[in-house]
Amino acid sequence: MLLVAALAVLATPADWIPARWFSSDPASLELLDRTPINCLLLERAQWTPNFLDAAATKGIITLGVLRPGDPTDFPRQLNGIVLEGDWSTRPTIKAPAIVELPPRSRMSFGPKDCLIGTYQAVWPGIQSGDHAKAAPSGGPWIDTNEGFLRFARAATPATIWIANTPPPKNAFTTERYLQVISDAAILGARWVVALDEDLAYRLEKREPEAVKTWQRIAAQLAWFEEHKNWRQYRPVGELAIVQDVDTGALYSGGVLDMIAVKHTPVIPVPTHLLPDASMAGSKMAVNVVPGALSPAQKEALAQFTRSGGRLLNGPPDWHFPPMSTDKITLAAGDVKKLDEIWRELNEMTGRRNLGARLFNVSSMLSSLLRSPDGSETILHLVNYSDFPVENVTVHVLGKYKSATFIAPGAAPRKLETYEVEEGEGTGVDIEKVGVNGTVLLEPLH
Predict the structure, then answer these.
(1) Of the candidates 359, 437, 355, the residue with the CA atom closest to the CA atom of residue 393
(2) Which of 92, 53, 87, 89 is nearest to 72 (CA)?
(3) Would you say domain 356-443 falls under CATH 2.40.170.20?
(4) Could you give the angle at the alpha carbon of 410 between the alpha carbons of 441 and 429, nearest 5°?
(5) How sure is the predictor about 180, in pLDDT bands with cuts at 50, 70 and 90?
(6) What is the spatial distance between Cα 49 and Cα 53, in angstroms, rounded to a whole number?
(7) Ranges of each domain in the chain
(8) Which positions ≥6 away from 81 have C-beta within 8 Å?
(9) What is the model's pTM?
């Protein structure tokens, strides 16, 4: 939750583009020039008058980070406070702004919140080495926050921050940072930029390669800000997943991630919002834990089936374990239950196109969205491998008169559209995808 008292001179919370800063040297703020970053999360050692005054001169919002057990005093030059961690009792603090970054299990999805977040997230990327495993589809497992974010975006209109930090004692490539940014951004969320220790050390010394990495990070952020209207777009597809906080929606590696690996567009339906119009357009639905529904919610799904929809219920004896404050992924036994749903889902969907089908994309994830007025459909693609993917084919339901592929640092490319047989709508072929790119589709009518 975010409480704003009087920040009239500052950007609204939805416009805050955050980063955890790595230096207390006022000269380091020069690195923010020509970047979209306008909000810094600062540790106590950085709350010096010289640093805060220099940030204010540049119009940078400064938020001081407090964790459980820290003293709650802070200099008035700070524009706000971040309460990070598991605060069992919220301290009494008077600050212009208070941002809460709790464990996932303590996140609130109230309709009046304008900014929510968490410090807990997986570090996106393809697992490798001794820790590698296969997804249910047989392809490489991709660590991602997309499933959790899909649910969060459906549950609240608030701006969402993912404030995890790089795993310690690791140095990451430039591409990995771009993947982390994209993993959140294609779902309308913002990753709070945080650098590994090696990159931060080299950047403070202005080593040329570190500066180049920083410039590419800034350019990636700027690209998504240039298209910030995409955050208002909503999921498109014929498959709905009925789930809630108590039935595993906040876990990574759960049902929504499993379906994302299948490259099937999906519409999350939070059970606490049933009955409403969120099932509109869906022809199939998966009810993850049938026993968790109230009579009114069961009736909403019964009405869905009476209207011609197909409903798949999860295993009757399955109960998601309560989410603890230190765990955001499922245990091995729960993953086996996911395999049961996977097999039944495959039988139900077959080779049907439920919004979009993608080919040659084993290292990629996608998100199919549509503008509120229906004038544009977009397909986000994120490539989690270390090399570009070539010859990607996409079949999208519906008829489209034009398609354009756009990506950071590249000129837009017109794509030839063609009709796909068997009622699968429109096909396009993409020659190459680097870290990420987006297909813009304009409907015929």
Answers:
(1) 359
(2) 92
(3) no
(4) 45
(5) very high
(6) 6
(7) 2-232, 237-349, 356-443
(8) 63, 64, 65, 66, 74, 93, 95, 97, 98, 99
(9) 0.93
Q: Give the angle 30-35-38 at the CA atoms, nearest 5°.
A: 85
Top CATH class of 2-232 equals alpha beta
CB 285 within 8 A of CB 309: yes
Give φ, ψ of 101 to 5 degrees. Answer: -120, 80
pLDDT in tens, 40-75: 999 999 999 999 999 999 999 999 999 999 999 999
CA distance 128 to 25: 37
CA distances from 408 to 89, 225, 269, 348, 436 (A): 43, 11, 32, 37, 8
- pLDDT tens across 388-399, in order? 999 999 999 999
Query: Exposed, middle or buried: residue 444 (CB in 10 Å: 0-12, 13-18, 19+)?
Result: exposed
User: 321: which residues sit within 8 A by CB, 6+ positions away?
Assistant: 331, 334
Q: Are 193 and 235 in contact (CB under 8 A)?
A: no
Contact criterion met (CB below 8 Å) for 59 and 41: no
Secondary structure class of 73 (helix, strand, coil): coil
Residue range 237-349, CATH number: 3.40.50
* 323 and 105 Cβ atoms separated by less than 8 Å: yes
Backbone angles phi, psi at 320, to 5 degrees: -65, 140
Q: Would you call the peptide bond into 443 cis, given omega within 30 degrees of 0 as the criterion?
A: no
